[in-house]
Sequence to fold (844 residues):
Amino acid sequence: MKNYSSKFKINSKLLLIVFIFSFFIFHFGEANAAKFTLSLSDFNEIVIGRQFKVNLFLDSESSSINAVEGKINFPENIGLYSVSDGGSIISFWAEKPKIGGNEISFAGVVPGGYNGSNGLVFSAVFTPKAAGSSVIKIINVKALLNDGQGTPAPVSVSNLPVKVASYNLTSEKLQVEVKDSEKPETFSLQVTRDESMFDGKWFLVFTTQDKGSGIDRYEIKESDKKQKKGEWKTAESPYLLSDQKLYSYIYVKAVDKAGNERVVMLEPAFAPWYKRPLVDIIVGLGIIIVVLFSIWLWQRFLKKKH
Amino acid sequence: MKEINKKWEIRQKSRARNFILALLVLVALAISVQAQTKEAGVSLTVTVGSFCGNGIVETDEQCDGSQLRGKSCADFGFSEGTLACSSACQFNMFFCTTNATATTTQNFVCSYANEYTLHDSNNSAKIALPPNFYNQDLNFYAFSYNKSVFQSSKPPPSGKNFIGKVYDFSFVDSEGDLVSTISQAAVLTIAYTDGDVGGITESSLAPYRRGIGDTSWQLVSGATVDTANNTVTFPTANFSSFVLLGSPSPSCGDGSCNSSETCSSCSTDCGACSSSPSPGGGGGGGGGGGGSISAPTPTPNIAFSGRAYPKSSVTILKDAQIAATTVADTLGVFQASLSGLSAGNYIFSVYSEDKDGIRSSLVTFPVSITAGAITNITGIFIAPSIAVNKQEVKKGDDIAIFGQSAVESEVTIMINSDETIFTKTKADKDGIYLHNFDTSDLDYGNHMAKSKASLGGAISGFSVGTGFKVSDKNVLAVKSVKKMLRGDANGDGKVNLVDFSIAAYWYKKSNPPAKIDLNSDGKVDLIDFSILAFNWTG
Fold:
């Protein structure tokens, strides 16, 4: 509780020196510039028909980065086969890496920030179609500092030159193997609503990760019974629920790129009137009363008869 | 012979009388010396060395140095490892190991109702304790194991099967001794999955207990089995091992996999189900999805330890989702571990909340988990919490800058202004710090205060900033916990996946609601996500 009297100020001369020093550092040393790098996952020669994998890495250069977005532009002589976020540092995607023409666009966040030199953002598998030299480029990229203000960090990029050779491939493996026998990570489901979306109706939020091959898709099923059987439909979070009365069991299946599945279930939030315990008791009592009354009537009828 | 015995008896009686007399004389002498020294104003103190670190276990100490009072890791439910003694003379289980698939240590305060749920994959066990459950605070140690662990050491009775996970629960008091019975019964709720009761008559489920001295499982009476929600709830005041036992259904468990049985309906006969690729999976052409199943991968573990605020809750996020919570001890030291993680890259974050519910900044670190290896993350130092008593302060008046940090740490407060001002104070034995800052030297306008702590050579990062304005009047600050977190779109006091989902819905759309447009620029873009990510609570 003691107040130490060690208060001191940084005077203006010192600040000027720091400013000049920082200016030189930023302009000539490029310190604290988040760096995005494209690199090949192996050293095999790139040949027509044989797939190759490219990783996009983030080096935060000692700063803490909590949001990134950008695009990867690839030449026409290599076709994009698939994109995977398996093992990514990105916790949540505002825009999951998706293909549009010759570009993959992405935007995601790392709550709390990423401070490291070799953070995988995502991977892409390409199939070379024609021989020639070209470059896979990183464009329109942004990285924001984890400072509560969304301050942009200076960014540098390292593109990937690609030289596709033309060989006759025979027995070699042509496809990038997906080695993953583990299910996606376990996850939870949350039903919520907000007046600003889906007209204030109930919706479901969910997400998970797969450390191996990455999440391929989510499937969802709403059922009035506790059973996994039935029709599943592909869905994304946030998902507008069909059963707005919330009487249904909600099942969500996360499927990774290797086909491993994890299914999680959420119990109904409410029970329909005919499933409520009080209704059961009233119906039960009603049946007992009707039965007793019928017995009484029958006995009365028999007495009269005799 | 009788005479000899009589003489011997007389001699013994005389010896006892002499001993009591000598004792009385000694007590009388002690009282008289004390009275005399008091009268003379002299205080005579003989110090035998009563302090932590003298190698003698004394009052309020669980251990001292290598003196562990014969305790080992096994006394606290761990399977092996080395029990250590901390610098505060408390047992330190950090080097104890366990083959449990989930474990936790919680400090339950006896004057409150306490509740904790231990999650292990899709299974869980919840303990609910009423207020005054014991005459002192107790540490609760919980371990969840795969049922195979108990199968040989504590086998189920004939005709019964273990259902789901099996658990070891124990309480330890402030002396470090095991408390097997508490004053008021706790309520345990053990949750199982549909898969756990494949081939089992669900209505036959019942909880069983096995104490340290027991040679068989004992039925716990008063249980409620909720087959709709897959839970079994029961009261117990005795603590030890707990399991759910159930009877195999007539056709299942007979040793042969009949035509009507499958791996999911009767894993006992047909074996455990293996995951198989779904038809038309995205990776079909990639050579994967071949459906071959590898042997179970060894389960990696990760352990965290560090300093937070005394008796504060510490939350651990795994890839931004809450993975564990624990409570720091009276010195602010915390330990936690996670099990059952797949090998791969993770982002772990740790934060704490002080006694007023003010949240610390996140300490985040990327970790690559290797199969079969234990990763230890040590030396985590949570930044201090910080708050001010005025949101607007009259120039020249004092503003109180306060918060909580590690016990007796040195706290450096930084006030951002045209000139950056640093000042120092010290946290007390409860980790609380307070500095009355004279605003005479500050310019009019907005300012930001941050703090960081140092202790024993370790330095924390800076806290989140708290703002105030220097003007011509004083306006008291709103209590920080009631302030709405930026990014908390649904107003539930948390910034998590729900808020992210609302923001993602409005990403790049026109006319977003103000609660999502965090920088008020008329759109939801990466900057809004960055602000939301900064305030993340999970």
Q: What stands out?
A: Chain A touches chain B through 88 residues (CB under 8 Å).
